[in-house]
Amino acid sequence: MWKNPASFALSALTTFALLLPMERLTWAAGPTPSEPSVSQPSPYAEIDDDYVELIQMFADALDQVDRNYVEKLDRRKLIEAAIRGVITELDPHSTYIPQEELARFRTNIDQQFGGIGIQIDSRNGQLIIASPLVGGPAYDAGLGAGDRILEINGQSTKGMTIDDAIARLKGDEGETVSLVIYHPAEFKTETVELEREMIQLQTVLGDQRLENNDWDYIYDHDQKIAYVRITIFSRNTAEEFAAVLQQLKKDEIRGLIVDLRSNPGGLLSAAIEISDRFINEGKIVSVEGRNTPKREWSAVADTTLVDVPVAVLVDHFSASASEIVSACLQDHERAVVIGQRTWGKGSVQNIINLEEGKSAMKLTTASYHRPSGKNIHRLPDAKDTDEWGVSPSPDMEVEMTPKQLANFQNYRRRRDMGTLIPHPPAPEPPLADVDPVLAKGLEYLESKLSQPASP
């Protein structure tokens, strides 16, 4: 049996206090006149009467379950369930990693596995496809951003964490995975069988392909308006993007559209490098948290590659690194942002060891802030009126109906699947009917280019 709950709680707090460095204990009690003040915040929770009472209540509840539940319970499972219960009150990106899964988690960070080419997220307890990577198995099968994953290999995703879902989706190359998918744009559910592949895809794309299968990055050759689409911010994305901009600079483009729709994010370093290509000076992004020192990244002089009017396209599934880029360019008045308000994923997760490294937590400890200082991350209880994500510039919001979204995804997929030059005999539909967001971007750039040049 466990100790008396009150004794258990006080004992736990005593042990906790003994682990504190002496300077932390001195600071908590208040420095004497001869002692220097400690400017950094304590990394430990404040121990007060309320905290003691709450721990006592928690210990009492565990003790009652352990002694009086109808069946004998595994105490480790009970404690781990309590930890998971705490973490489920936080956000979908914080999670507990038990002993039996920790080794696999650490191995998965560095090793490559086969997958189906999707980024997933969670909203309102549902697993959602944030982005299918162009050319991947999921994309070729018709899965789109916003589709909901109901089952993975016959296992319901209700209550499933993002990390657990990713572990089930990954596997050996060539193996298949079965998904039950709900398409909200078409109000239909289907089962799809996808074969896992090693996903190493180009991440900087154009609108359509040339006859040699290379991407054509100039959308309007008469007006010299370029179109560059970034699908994800991976290790090579910044380098790919810089090479494309160098070529477009040689082509003497007059306007540029950067499409970040359904881009789930990726590496912070890639977002910073790409943002730096557009601005000469000033803050790009900052990171801060309750116990995380504030850190800022600023533009480096002489790295700007283009100095033309820019339109950035975003939607509800633009997240993380794509929000950093769009927010940076918007705050510096370097581009207009067109489309819909973004997802609001601007958080930083740290791996925190428990039990001297036998188990761990992946915990959200900080959040990204745009150059203006405004918050990017959408907290679980955030309202639409709160400050989060990236909203379209004034008069640049473009809402798409479910039918328009379905038409756009089909149109975009046809243009991505292969060489479309020469064009098929059937005429292309008006752009405003299949992609009103891109049409708005072109309209904006054409209006800018028609204005007299500034002296």
UniProtKB/TrEMBL annotation:
GO biological process, one term: proteolysis
Residues making up the signal peptide according to the UniProt record: 1-28
Keyword presence, Zinc: no
Record's protein name: Carboxyl-terminal proteinase
Species annotation: Blastopirellula marina DSM 3645
Alphabetized NCBIfam families for the sequence: prc
Keyword Electron transport annotated: no
Gene Ontology molecular function terms on file: endopeptidase activity; serine-type peptidase activity
Protein family (similarity comment): Belongs to the peptidase S41A family.
Chain segments carrying region Disordered: 416-435
Classification via InterPro entries: ClpP/crotonase-like_dom_sf, CtpA/B_N, PDZ, PDZ_6, PDZ_sf, Peptidase_S41A, Tail-specific_protease
Domain PDZ: 114-170
Keywords: Hydrolase, Protease, Serine protease, Signal
Entry GO CC: outer membrane-bounded periplasmic space
